[in-house]
Amino acid sequence: MRQNTQVKNVFVLCTGRCGSTTFTRAFEHASNWTSGHETRSHLLGPDRLNYPCWHIEADNRLSWILGRLDRAFGKRALYIHLTRDPEAVARSYEQRINKGIMRAYARGILLNTSKLPKDISPYEFARDYVDTVTENIRLFLQDKPNKMEFRLESACDDTEKLWAHLELSGNLEAALAEWDIKHNAALNKADSYQRRSILGRLRHFK
After folding, report:
1. Element (DSSP H or E) covering residue 35
2. Would you give per-residue pLDDT tens digits along the chain (206 residues)?
3. What global pTM score does this model have?
4. CATH T-level fold of 9-86+131-204
5. Count of CB atoms situated within 10 Å of the CB of 182
6. Is the separation of the CB atoms in 90 and 17 below 8 Å?
7. Residue by residue, what is the 3-state secondary structure of 157-171?
8. What residue spans define the domains of the chain?
9. DSSP helix/strand/coil, 8
10. What is the 3-state secondary structure (H, E, C) of 90-112?
11. CA-CA-CA-CA torsion for 39, 155, 174, 76, nearest 10 degrees?
12. Other CB atoms closer than 10 Å to residue 69's CB: what's the count?
């Protein structure tokens, strides 16, 4: 990671399901920068990338508009490639095959079909998505002088490095403690069934 005191924006690029919510919560403990998660993902046109200065943004959908991100910020920003073991990411995404980004990728981008083929497992679609997004990000970062690899498996160490690099003020101890909390964790099948049962009972009493 190259030192650059002119950096005023940080973008966290990732596949999703790799700790981006926790990353944002951790850096919310900085007092001289802001930190947000998908804060402008509901906007179009120039507004989509109109981020304020001294801001850290984590948004896995940025991997699909990297050309526009390059045009808007180019080599002036610091780019964080947030990663997690790809198999773990795919295993998390296979539980979400029929919603969100996985539904869009499998049925709209990759195959353009209303129904998924029975001979391809949800895990295979998820792994294909992870590989595609990861390579998009790697290609984008090739000519970027300000970049950092940030691994979920070494999150505390990497948090300390980035904190020092940006010369952040605030509560570093609280930032590190965020990595002990599971934010936006995937539900396992038992949890999912229990949640649906509870919601069903609640609807019954309305």
Report:
1. strand 34-37
2. 655 557 999 999 999 999 999 999 999 999 999 999 999 999 999 999 999 999 999 999 999 999 999 999 999 999 999 999 999 999 999 999 999 999 999 999 999 998 899 999 999 999 999 999 999 999 999 999 999 999 999 999 999 999 999 999 999 999 999 999 976 765 444 444 333 333 333 333 33
3. 0.86
4. Rossmann fold (3.40.50)
5. 10
6. no
7. HHHHHHHHHCCCCEC
8. 9-86+131-204
9. coil
10. HHHHHHHCCCHHHHHHHHHHHCC
11. -50
12. 20
Structure tokens at 103: 């539904």
Starting from the edge strand earliest in sequence, which strands make up the sheet with 34-37, in order? 34-37, 55-58, 9-13, 78-83, 147-151
Short-list 66, 86, 64, 82, CA closest to 74:
66
Contact indicator for 63, 81 with CB cutoff of 8 Å: no
